[in-house]
Fold this sequence. Notes:
This protein has 12 helices and 6 strands. Helices cover 52% and strands 10% of the residues. The protein is of the alpha/beta class and 270 residues long. The chain folds into 2 domains: 3-25 and 103-269, Rossmann fold, CATH 3.40.50.1000; 26-102, DNA polymerase, domain 1 (Orthogonal Bundle), CATH 1.10.150.240.
Amino acid sequence: MNHSAAGLRAVIFDWAGTTIDYGSRAPAAVFIEIFRRSGVDISSAEARGPMGRAKRDHIAAILALPRVAAAWVQANGHAPGAADIDRLYAEFLPLQKETLAQHADVIPGVPEVVAECRRRGLRIGSTTGYTRELLDVIEPLARQCGFDPDVAICADDVAQGRPAPWMLFRAAEQLGAYPPQAIIAVDDTPVGIEAGRNAGAWTVAVTKSGNSLGLSLAEVEALDPGELKRRIDAATREFQDLGADYVMESVADLLPVMDDIASRLNRQNA
């Protein structure tokens, strides 16, 4: 193992907004659409708030927002309940499946960073709020574009999705990677960083390419530089307040973070 990776065993990446789908755009658009079909307009911020959770949990969290719940009563004549969550989730899955192929682009820098991690002797895992049925659409497309993790754990592979640590534990088990402080969890959502903390892993949050900004690469490049900095700074503060160990703009920035973690581990073990 390369000296800079000493003490580290694995990096476990999230999918949408972290390694693929710049801006995590596929799920947000579908959440907005399924609520619109039920007569309720939700904002992008409302759609994105619970991002990273298992998708049924995500729908329930949106419905629990007081403004959305009130709009639901006005449009549908009753308070939202479990049957409504089930129906929205049933609508979500096929619609999401239809749109996924257009959002499987690998984020710039990911293939190179993953290749360097492997060169340093690290295993590569992944977790996602998508179900296995949905990931089956994305995985071969991402593989063609250079992201091919050793392990992929989906929300429906475990008893409870994020912020529970079970997906990370399952990935670590399949990778043969332990103890938790030998693992880096990389995610672009607050709930994903919570899951990493709950698993005892090093947590690295992604801002620019992820759900926090929610912008495509072209939109990011077109944004006024001052406005872009303001948004990235706001996302950075949010992740720091959550207790993320590191915050970076994209996976392309991971190698210096890994070096710093490795040096901290070396000092601890000296």
